[in-house]
Amino acid sequence: MILSVDIYSRNTWWKVMFLVFCVIVGLFSLYFTDKIVSKLEEREKEQIELFAESLNYAMTSDLSQDVNFFLEKIKKSNENNTIPMILKDGNGHLSSKNIEMPRNLSYHDQQILLRQKLAEIMQDENEPIELDMEFHKEYIYYGNSRLLNLLRYYPLFQLVFVLIFGLAAYLFFDASRRSEQNQVWVGLAKETAHQLGTPLSSLTAWVEYFKSDPSYDPEIVKELEKDVARLDTITTRFSNIGSIPVLKEENIIETIETFMSYLQKRISKKIAFSFDNQLTVNHTVKLNRYLFEWVIENICKNAVDAMSGVGSLKITLSETKNNKIAIDISDSGKGISKQNLSKVFTPGFSTKKRGWGLGLTLAKRIVENYHDGKLFVKHSELNKGTTFRILLDT
Question: How far apart, in whole angstroms, are the C-alpha atoms of residue 77 and residue 83?
């Protein structure tokens, strides 16, 4: 198996690597910030314990003025911090530090509000600090400071931002790739149609000349006419794919039957053709007949290659539960391996020695971009065959 160079797959690989890098950066930031939060949490706990010890010492000891002044400075050092604290004395009364309280609130209402705040603080799961007084015990409940909470949730916001940035970059690269592909397709199609136009006009003139000369065999002239008509169809296809194609209501059964009749005479006679129409009525579908026949041709020729010119080829027409027309093209070929299933529609991918890897890509583009349908591999099994399915709106 020979695979051609696929620059688009390589670009996709770089995009995946970029996205993985963004995730790694976000996770590292999350880990690093979590370490900072843990250290800050320990520091705040030490501050509260220091405050509690100084408060307990000041209230239970008879110290000189100088030591008391020192203890007052320790307590004062905690006055301006942002750690919310609630002190519960032996009688169950509550007092607070660093908690905003409405002005002119009665003592009873203050106690109610502090009990509510106490319930919120206890959600931070910080163990209360016990103060062992001479005749009773008091408790200091404290929560996390605003800075600690910001640091705790900051890495999550940062990770989301990195992921959004990575996704936006991925979508940008993907849009650029699609735009580049479109320009390549359109440019190639227009140039091909232009290059075919001149020799086709000449061939048409020669056919008319042969028809007027009785010395030429009419059967040969008739076959030449078919080939010229075929070239004209190919030119029309490239012209249509290089611009916005015009869709018309076409009888889907008649379209496929007519084209299969034409194709059957031009491929291996060792291929057994069959056509199974399960539609109850003659459905019409909006098609560009030239382009849609190209889709059927590419899939069928791909199937013939997979069977090495010997086997069976079956086309089934049916209607799905959601009122879509399903066209199944099944062959008895070598099948598609699991690792190649996701690559069959990739530009440049081919398992044939002389394959360009554009036939199925082109077919998918025509079905999905121009006819708003779907083309996918319905089923494939190694050495048993493959079924491609086309879905179209009625």
Answer: 12
- For residue range 187-199, list pLDDT tens digits in order: 666 667 666 776 7
CA dist 259 and 254 (Å) reads 8
**Cβ within 8 Å of residue 18, ≥6 positions away:** 166, 169, 170
- Please answer whether residues 19 and 170 qualify as being in contact, where contact means their C-beta atoms are separated by less than 8 angstroms: yes
Contact 367, 309 (CB under 8 A): no
User: Which alpha helices (DSSP H) does 265-351 contain, by range?
Assistant: 289-306, 338-341
Determine contact, residues 238/193, Cβ cutoff 8 Å. Answer: yes
Bridge partners of residue 97, in order along the sequence: 85
144 closest CA partner among 49, 50, 76, 44? 44
Q: Rounded to two decimals, what is the model's pTM? A: 0.51
Task: Give the Å distances, CA to CA, from 315 to 252, 299, 328, 341, 388.
Answer: 12, 11, 6, 21, 10
Burial 34-68 (b: 16+ CB within 10 A, else e): eeebeebbeebeebbeebbebbbeeeeeeeeeeee
Domains of the chain and CATH, by start: 7-149 (no CATH), 246-393 (3.30.565.10)
Q: Are 54 and 74 in contact (CB under 8 A)?
A: yes
Kindly give, in sequence order, each residue whose CB lies less than 8 Å from that of residue 66, ignoring residues fewer than 6 positions away. none
Token pair of 316, please? 């089934």
In this structure, are residues 175 and 39 in contact, taking their beta carbons and an 8 Å threshold?
no
Nearest residue to 375 via CA among 384, 388, 356: 388
pLDDT digits (tens, 9 = 90+) for 127-183: 888 877 767 788 888 877 777 777 777 777 777 777 787 788 778 777 777 666 666
Is the distance from CB of 380 to CB of 341 less than 8 angstroms?
yes
Q: CB neighbours (10 Å) of residue 97?
A: 17
